[in-house]
UniProtKB/TrEMBL annotation, chains A, B:
The lineage of its organism: Eukaryota, Metazoa, Chordata, Craniata, Vertebrata. The chain holds residues 110 to 284 of 500 of the full protein. One of its GO terms (cellular component) is chromatin. One of its GO terms (molecular function) is RNA polymerase II cis-regulatory region sequence-specific DNA binding. This is T-box transcription factor TBX21. Its main location: nucleus. The keyword Metal-binding does not apply. It comes from Eptatretus burgeri. Keywords: Activator, DNA-binding, Isopeptide bond, Nucleus, Phosphoprotein, Repressor, Transcription, Transcription regulation, Ubl conjugation. It is found in: Nucleus. Residues 1-164 form the T-box domain. One of its GO terms (biological process) is cell fate specification.
Length: 175, 175
DNA sequence: GCATTTTCACCTAGGTGTCAAGTT
DNA sequence: AACTTGACACCTAGGTGAAAATGC
């Protein structure tokens, strides 16, 4: 039970940090609404109450943490290796987040100041937390919406074998 | 310039943590002595002064961080994906440590308390730091000691193709 | 019925020491 | 002469959706 990567993955651009100060960047995923959802007639519709037992999800630190403001601002902060699972027993492994299927979630970006990265000073203050509604998603164990499936096949490099034109781009040529 | 993994890799067993408290575990690598080293006549011998310009190496956080004391004590804490390089430009990437060839190094284990892992409390106190002399090593760009090379070939799964008996363990049997 | 788990062929990603070539 | 770099064949590791099997 190892989970699967979130795809498309979360990526954020940040500015306004002190280039020489040190920060840790994390993502947390919280319930976005109180509903259980189902896919019916080509649409997602609410269907009963969400199971609210499994709140308090793990904070998933970006692998570059801790690092300088300059590093975080240089380019998009991508969480390409973040994985989700419905297996509670896997919750303690790195970059793994436990979710419940057919619930809607809201990712949150955390930026925490960690003092100077001299030998071992790591005193901190309250982190800034950001939530972008456009990153909400519904977790599933089997794909419902074929548009999403096709988007994954088209853009996820690991799904290349499922692209329609995969071995017909150079028809008749054997290498 | 992406560096190479340290192998054999660092691994530590810890005890005495509060099972429910939260900690981050890190490794740092510092110069072990003031010498430059060379391999001569089958032995490592001091050869001049170390270049002390590149001190203050990055603290490399274990990917499971932050996590509970129970998690850290459950099994060995392994840094199997930690990489070393001599390229200063690569210093900002995750799990990467910049070293100088032909210098001797001492890894250090850091265990930092990070308060409760409730939403975003991350206040901390001074971390505990441990250094085990048996983990010292000399960084190289080309292997000098053939015993070490053979140890790597024998035990590193990625070097399987270099084992003498690689395709002769079951001679004549085709599967 | 519908949701979840398991297995699979197919793919990307990247970690080995070696060796030849380059550098100082 | 000694050290460093880059290309390479060969390998491990693991991320895909599909589809079959299993649960509930």
């Amino acid at each position: 039970k190892q989970g699967r990567r979130m795809f498309p993955f979360l990526a954020f651009s940040v500015c306004g940090l002190d280039p020489t100060a040190h920060y840790s960047v994390s993502v947390q995923v919280v319930l976005a609404d109180p509903n259980h959802w189902r896919f019916q007639g080509g649409k997602w519709v609410p269907s009963g109450k969400a199971d609210t037992n499994m709140q308090g999800n793990k904070i998933c630190m970006h692998p570059d943490s801790p690092n300088t403001g300059a590093h975080w601002m240089r380019q998009e902060i991508a969480f390409g290796k973040l994985k989700i699972t419905n297996n509670k027993g896997a919750s303690n492994q790195g970059q793994m987040i436990v979710l419940q299927s057919l619930h809607k979630y809201q990712p949150r970006l955390h930026i925490s100041w960690v003092g100077e990265a001299s030998d071992h000073a790591e005193g901190q203050m309250q982190p800034h937390v950001f939530a972008f509604p456009e990153t909400q998603f519904i977790a599933v164990t089997a794909y419902q919406n074929t548009d999403i499936t096709q988007l994954k096949i088209d853009h996820n490099p690991f799904a290349k074998g499922f692209r329609d034109n995969y071995d017909t781009i150079y028809p008749g040529i054997e290498v």
